[in-house]
Amino acid sequence: GNSVTQMEGPVTLSEEAFLTINCTYTATGYPSLFWYVQYPGEGLQLLLKATKADDKGSNKGFEATYRKETTSFHLEKGSVQVSDSAVYFCALSNTGNQFYFGTGTSLTVIP
Amino acid sequence: EAGVAQSPRYKIIEKRQSVAFWCNPISGHATLYWYQQILGQGPKLLIQFQNNGVVDDSQLPKDRFSAERLKGVDSTLKIQPAKLEDSAVYLCASSLVGGSHIDTQYFGPGTRLTVL
């Protein structure tokens, strides 16, 4: 079946620290992988995506590389800001465009 | 381009009452999704429409939940009667194509339902 496992939070970092949020997946076939971000009181927003192995998605300083050999799609950012405080969801989409989400990782960045 | 619109944003009801949520997807998007997001969890798909037909409703509790997408545009999700465990945020999303094609989903702000 299809599933996504994310590292549990919450994660608290100081401003300008390096961020890694781990995500691994189980899927049949060749899924696309996504990171969504949810700011307080808002819906999910697409942060980045990758559609095939070795693709790197990037946006707003965040990056993630689709690693088929390790079935991973870890999210990274070199220097986080207070405005990055949010909940981050890893997701996969497979045939039929059904999305499977992880449980989310809450990030708080302190000045 | 306008995003996915949902209303109401918040709703508080007592158990056994009924409630309805409305969603207007991005213009031109063929596929519409309803998700349930319980606090501390990721969204769970309830139902997926392509145009006005149901693609997947395998996780929709059909004894109390119903959804429709008349004319292939707006959609309404109804709960009748509500239970305490229905307290959650109900998210609507849409994508341009869907079906067998993998496509980015765009989410609305959600409706937060509290059942007392």
What secondary-structure arrangement, pairings included, does this model have?
The complex is a heterodimer of chains A (111) and B (116).
Chain A: E1 3-6, E2 11-14, E3 19-21, E4 23-26, E5 32-38, E6 44-50, E7 56-59, E8 62-65, E9 75-77, E10 86-94, E11 98-101, E12 105-110
Parallel strand pairs in A: 2-12
Antiparallel strand pairs in A: 1-4, 3-9, 5-6, 5-10, 7-8, 8-9, 10-11, 10-12
Chain B: E1 5-7, E2 10-13, E3 19-24, E4 31-37, E5 44-50, E6 53-56, E7 65-68, E8 75-79, E9 88-95, E10 106-107, E11 111-115
Parallel strand pairs in B: 2-11
Antiparallel strand pairs in B: 1-3, 3-8, 4-5, 4-9, 5-6, 7-8, 9-10, 9-11
Short summary of the structure?
The complex is a heterodimer of chains A (111) and B (116). Chain A is mainly beta and 111 residues long.
Structure description:
The complex is a heterodimer of chains A (111) and B (116). By secondary structure, chain A is mostly beta strands. Chain A is built from no helices and 12 strands. Helix content of chain A is 0%, strand content 53%. Chain B is globular, with a radius of gyration of 13 Å. Chain B is built from no helices and 11 strands. The chains are: A mainly beta (111), B mainly beta (116). Chain A binds chain B through residues 4, 31-32, 34, 36, 41-46, 49, 51, 89, 91, 93-99, 101-104, and chain B through 4, 6, 31, 33, 40-45, 48, 55-56, 91, 93, 95, 97-110.
